[in-house]
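User: Need the bound-state model for adenosine-5'-diphosphate:
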Amino acid sequence: MELRIGGAKVVLVRGDITEQDAEAIVNAANPSLMGGGGVDGAIHRKGGPKILEECKRIRAMEWPEGLPTGKAVITSGGDLKARYVIHTVGPIWQGGGRGEPGLLREAYLNSLKLAVSRGIRTIAFPSISTGAYGYPIEEASRIALRAIKDFLEVEDGLDEVRLVLFTEGDLKVYEEAAREVLKP
Ligand code: ADP
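Assistant: Bound-state model below.
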């Protein structure tokens, strides 16, 4: 599925985030920035040790206590096709009353802002927080798409925002959300 918002296209695809040829891919990281499971593990495995070295430097220089939920930082893409990895931390689902929707929105918005500030024109996101962090995907997909839409309506600079869903079921959920959230 492909839609146009402002000067950019928003593309929903089934795939593996580590295989994307976008200029930047987004990592669903945890505050430690030291790797983990899911998307995080796959990115560090395929991207090689350079990414982890840069993450360690960021921890030491900028975030000694860890990257707070909703914030984003950038490293090179190591051995990945993508030139950059933007690491952001989504919220852990705790029932929805602990600020999770706002924090998930911030994770998307701060990643997009960081990309534009570095002159990146194509960015690919996984479905942040909907794996180990347990965020219900029906809600998370709407928040993701609304954040992307709101951003693209006011900011120039991006040519493509790609959402890369790992399963056919997840892709269907995002496509349904897109029909609601992104309708003209
Ligand atoms: P979080 O801790 O933010 O929930 P996860 O990495 O556990 O992050 O999961 C986020 C989503 O990414 C889940 O829907 C999961 O199925 C999906 N996922 C896992 N591996 C990949 C991958 N290689 N590419 C794209 N999506 C992936």
